[in-house]
Amino acid sequence: MPGFDQARVGDVLEIQQLILEWGYDLDITGGSKVAKLCTDDCDYKVGGVQHLGPDAITKFYAARNERVRTQQKDGVRTQRHTITNPRVSFQGAQDATIEFLIVNYSAEGKAPALNLVGPTIIADCQMKCRFDSARGWLIASFDSQPVFIGNDPFLNASVVKK
């Protein structure tokens, strides 16, 4: 069973909070602030497509939010990411990996979403994090592997490899 010394306990909590802030931003702003949580060289993959650095990450979420505006009922998409089973490991003083599970619920239109049958997607996720003395813990890479994929054409267009 992994254990952490007292100094690492604080790092674990900060890394978990970073991931929770990431999920909150995805749900509330559609990811428009995610790039601020990332390193300058962040390798961010969604559906197997790589986005390198904050500018590319910002462009990805801006394009997604434009698709929401033009393709979803009332230009709105309601989603919630449940982040669970976090496991943090350290690869040195300034490098860590957090593995976790995302259970995502989403639907077009404003909340409350009616007639939801189950999660939109469940995915195993991995983020590598790096400590920056000026900004704290940041996301250096992100990738996920779907375990279950629901029947949501909008989400599936982004995450199902063609």
Description:
This protein has 162 residues and is α+β, with helices and mostly antiparallel strands. It has a single domain (6-159), classed as Roll (Nuclear Transport Factor 2, Chain: A). It contains 3 helices and 6 strands, in the order αββαββββα. The chain has helices at 6-29, 53-71, 153-159; strands at residues 38-46, 49-52, 77-90, 95-108, 121-132, 136-149. Strands 2-1-6-5-4-3 form a 6-stranded mixed β-sheet, covered by helices on one side. Strand 3 (77-90) and strand 4 (95-108) form a beta hairpin. It is globular, with a radius of gyration of 16 Å. The mean pLDDT is 93.
Task: Offer a few descriptive terms.
31% helix; 3 helices; Nuclear Transport Factor 2, Chain: A; 162 residues; alpha+beta
Set down the secondary structure blueprint.
Layout: H1 6-29, E1 38-46, E2 49-52, H2 53-71, E3 77-90, E4 95-108, E5 121-132, E6 136-149, H3 153-159
Parallel strand pairs: 1-6
Antiparallel strand pairs: 1-2, 3-4, 4-5, 5-6
Global mean pLDDT: 93
Could you describe the largest sheet, including whether it forms a barrel?
6 strands, mixed
Distance between the termini: 39 Å
Strands in their spatial order, largest beta sheet: 2-1-6-5-4-3
State the helicity in percent bands.
25-40%
CATH architecture assignment name: Roll
Rg over alpha carbons = 16 Å
Count structural domains. Answer: 1
Q: Low-confidence parts, pLDDT < 50 over ≥5 residues?
A: none
